[in-house]
Amino acid sequence: MEKKLRMTHQREIILDELRRCRSHPTADELYERIKKKLPRISLATVYRNLEILSEVGLITKLEISGRQKRFDWDVQDHDHVYCTECHRVDNIPTATTTCLPVDPDQQKGYQITGCRIEFYGLCPNCQKPRKVQKFKGDKDMACKSCTTGLSDTQRQVLEAFAKSEEACGSKDIAAATGMESKKVSCQITALKKKGFVSSPVRCKYEITDEGKSQLSC
Questions:
Q1: What is the CATH number of the domain that holds 92?
Q2: DSSP 195
Q3: Residues 94 and 77: beta-carbon distance below 8 Å
Q4: CA distance 185 to 188
Q5: What CA–CA distance (Å, rounded) separates 29 from 53?
Q6: 204 in a domain, yes or no?
Q7: pLDDT in tens, 70-109
Q8: Closest C-alpha to 213, from 198, 193, 195, 186
């Protein structure tokens, strides 16, 4: 049962932004979204409130494979699957809420009250075959617009730009994809050099028509 908690304006904003996320963001990623509405809020305040909200059962705290903590607004019973390549995390509906059986002599004296299952593998984007680099003298095997190719992470970033209705920063894309901000920045730089994203305003980017054509390849 959820404990009683005074719902402050800050906590309402944090909960609202977490529900808007399509991924399972870290405190840092969520902070970048929240500070647009609450410019004076600190990362420490966001992190502290996330911990409090998870303790009272309003959200779930995930510690996937020992990596940085992530947060999930869905508190219904479900498990998670983790991509070992790009670190994306998705929900997997739980077929049963019954805890896995453990023989009494294997419980090490613990009173077991529950269990958590973690699946891992490659997400759909990371399963896509990588394009083979072309060398001088190779015959064209694809249309001209597709020969530049995209890495799996670049495609994921480009897809996030395509879903955005306005120009956004690298930290916005990091929050949408669940990737680290530094990694996203590197991918954006590469995409900009290829002409797949442009920068209409300083530190803001959007997908170009050429970038959109790449997603259809």
A1: 3.30.1490
A2: T
A3: yes
A4: 5
A5: 17
A6: yes
A7: 888 777 777 778 787 777 787 777 665 566 778 888 888 8
A8: 195
- Would 69 be classed as within a structural domain? yes
- Residue 132 forms part of a structural domain: no
> Looking at residue 148, what is its pLDDT?
46
* In contact, 79 and 94? CB cutoff 8 Å: yes
Summarize pLDDT for 63-74 with one digit per residue, the tens. Answer: 765 566 888 877
148 and 97 in a common domain:
no
User: Both 3 and 67 in a single domain?
Assistant: yes
For 126-135, the pLDDT digits (tens) are 888 765 444 4
How would residue 60 be classed by pLDDT, with cut points 50, 70 and 90? Answer: confident
Q: Are 199 and 205 in contact (CB under 8 A)?
A: yes
What is the distance between the alpha carbons of residues 174 and 32, in angstroms, rounded to a whole number? 9
Q: Which of residues 66 and 190 earns the better pLDDT score? A: 190
99 lies in some domain = yes
Residue-range definition of the domain harbouring residue 116: 76-124
- Residues 115 and 120: their CA atoms lie apart, in Å, by 17
Q: Is 209 found in the same domain as 153?
A: yes
